[in-house]
Amino acid sequence: MSRARIWTRRGLILVLRVSRLVSIGIRQIRPGLRFLWRSLLKRWRRSLEFRTVLTTLLLAVTSFAIVGAYLSNQIANNLFQERLAQAESESRYNVKQVQDTFDGAQVTDQSSVITLVYDTLTAVEGRGSVIQRRYVFEAVPEQTKPRNRWVESRASDQLTVRVIPPELRKAVQEGGKQQFWASMEFPVGNEDRPGIAVGNKVTFNGTMYELYLIYDLNTAQKTLDEIQNVLLAGGAALVLMIGAVAWYVTRNVVSPVSHAAVVSEKLAAGQLQERMVVKGEDEVARLGASFNHMAASLQEQITQLATLSQMQQRFVSDVSHELRTPLTTVRMAAEVLYDAREDFDPMNKRSAELLYNQVERFQSLLSDLLEISRFDAGAAVLDAEPQDIFQVLGQVIEGAAPVAEEYGSEVLLHAREKSIIVEMDSRRIDRILRNLVLNALEHGEGRPVHISVAANQDAVAIAVRDHGIGMTPTEAARVFDRFWRADPARARTTGGSGLGLSIAAEDTKLHNGWLQAWGRKGVGSNFRLTLPLRQGGTILKSPLQLEPAEFAVSGIEPGAVLERQVLLLSAAADDPTAGPASDELGAPLGDAGVVPAEHQNPGAVDGAGHGTRADDVEAGNHDVPGAEDRPEQGKGPTS
Fold first, then answer.
1. Are 504 and 368 in contact (CB under 8 A)?
2. Which residues contact 408 (CB under 8 A, 6 or more apart)?
3. 446 conformational bin, left if phi > 0, alpha if psi -120 to 50, beta if neither
4. pLDDT beneath 70, residues of the chain
5. 443 in helix, strand or coil?
6. Which pLDDT does position 199 carry in this prediction?
7. Residue 283, CB-side half-sphere exposure with 13 Å CA sphere
8. Which of 34, 319, 424, 593 has an alpha carbon within 20 to 30 A of 460's alpha carbon?
9. What's the pLDDT score for residue 588?
10. HAMP domain location, by residue (predicted)?
């Protein structure tokens, strides 16, 4: 018992070790198989030649498998039917001879009966006209009133009645003098051979016997195997030949297309001198000639456009530089006249004021043109250094205070962080934010302007939201074009050069950031600036959503509304009767109109009249489903 337990335990340990080795092998093989499968799929998707050749081979193999199976089945059936007909014919003849011999026998003793039966069956055994023949001789069981039955059974080559199919024996026993047959296998030496057993009944000395003649089909099976091998070898060779032909034909057709694709990629990369090699006069050659003609035409047009663009840029740059000196002189004279306007009569006083204002506007337009010319010439350089984005934003809001007072708008800052350090060119970011805030105040129709700031691991986003006249999606897509205005007749009370947003887009591009716009007529617009926290970084997703939460398809979700922390530049801030500027709690504003942290209101009311508590606001990504960064809503990363 103890030895049995020991060996059982050893067997279990061996089984566990083998199963562990098998699982380890499968785990090691699986990555290779997965890599091979992915490589095949990639090759299938990217190579027309591979896909065509493989499809041809698969179809050829399938076709040959179907045809080969059909031919093999037909040949096997024909051979079997031929051997069956021969076996039935020979069996009838031999059974008749055996029965005639038994009927004419005049023997009574046991030895004579055994000798007669043996000699008669031996004469039946042997080679037939085509196929080898064996026999099984067995007395029918349970016979009534048998006479002397001295021969129970006989068989050739040590066969027994057990090799006969039971169905055949039952049919022979229950039938009369009819002949029955069945397919079977019987042992010959160390192998099993296919055969046909034909059964009949014979009588001898009043005893009924079953006589089975077994025909060996091994020769026919070998013939069938040879035919199948020939079909298999011929089919494999033909499949390989078809694959080679398909590869050759496909290569001749696909190679020019692949060459055209390579040349197209080089043309798209700016190598306009690339051309296809044209050989012959067939369809592919005509395609190559047409492609080369198209490439030459494109090269000529692109060269002309590039030359014209360079001339235009040079013209703008030269004119801008040439106008600086006379404009400075005119501006000095306009300032002198403007300072002395009180001594003029009303008409000349108004003329001096108009001259001064228009010269100032001309000076601003000239500065914008000079900046644009630097971008076009590639001379704009990014001077980035780490700086707090709130410091730059505070300066922008402080500078926009007079404009906010003029339009009667208040500026609300929404942020959770108190400090966000960004590697940026503060002068350019100041110009971008100043442009966005002034545009929001100018077109906000006296309603509040909301500035939201948020950051994630990779980027910081500043969104400027107004509730003024708004714009359509088409206008939002063109708002960053040079000199473009949705309404050419719109009053130009601030700015008005038409280049501010274009310059802002170029400044954003230098920072590898995004500047995008959203708008809807009658409800306002939203401009979102997204910058990487580190110079050269990549933006994966903006921390703020572009489309306001109240217009998102899925509504406001947790984290989509930022905490209202700071109230800036209230329209009544400079009202003498209103007293010192303060937030909702009555705390005085700090420098640049920013509420000190100890007086911030956690339940401040937002611009839509909804109160929010700081404890109820959750941090998170502020892009809601359905409000992803859409190219049609503004400029993308390459604004």
1. no
2. 446, 571
3. left
4. 1, 127-131, 144-149, 317, 320, 376-379, 485-497, 550-639
5. helix
6. 93
7. 4
8. 593
9. 32
10. 251-303
Integer angstrom CA distances of residue 65 from 225, 228, 235, 556:
16, 11, 8, 62
**Per-residue pLDDT at 145:** 56
- Token pair for 471: 């714009």
Spell out the alpha helix ranges (H) of 47-128: 48-103, 110-124
H or E segment at 209? strand 207-216
Question: Phi, psi (5° rounding) for residue 631?
Answer: -60, -35
Q: Which residues of 586-606 are buried (b: 16+ CB within 10 A; e: fewer)?
A: ebebeebbbbeeeebbeebeb
**pLDDT at position 177, please?**
82
Nearest to 203 by CA among 59, 100, 279: 100
- Distance (Å, rounded) from C-alpha 448 to C-alpha 458? 30
- Are 151 and 114 in contact, with CB atoms under 8 Å apart? yes
Instruction: Report the alpha-carbon distance of residue 496 to residue 482 in Å, rounded.
Output: 12
pLDDT at position 461, please? 93
C-alpha 265: how far from chain center: 22
The backbone torsions φ and ψ at residue 422, rounded to the nearest 5 degrees and listed phi first, read -130, 140
SS3 of 274-337: CCCCCCCCCHHHHHHHHHHHHHHHHHHHHHHHHHHHHHHHHHHHHHHHHHHHHHHHHHHHHHHH
Distance CA 194, CA 185 (A): 5
- Provide, for the chain, the percentages of residues in helix, strand and coil under a 3-state DSSP scheme, each rounded to the nearest 5: 55, 15, 30
Q: 79 is written with which tokens?
A: 């051979």
pTM above 0.85, yes or no: no
| Rounded Cα gap, residues 460 and 389, in angstroms | 9
How confident is the model at residue 526, as a pLDDT? 92
Query: What is the predicted pLDDT for the residue at 147?
Result: 55
- Report yes or no: 155 and 161 within 8 Å, Cβ to Cβ: yes
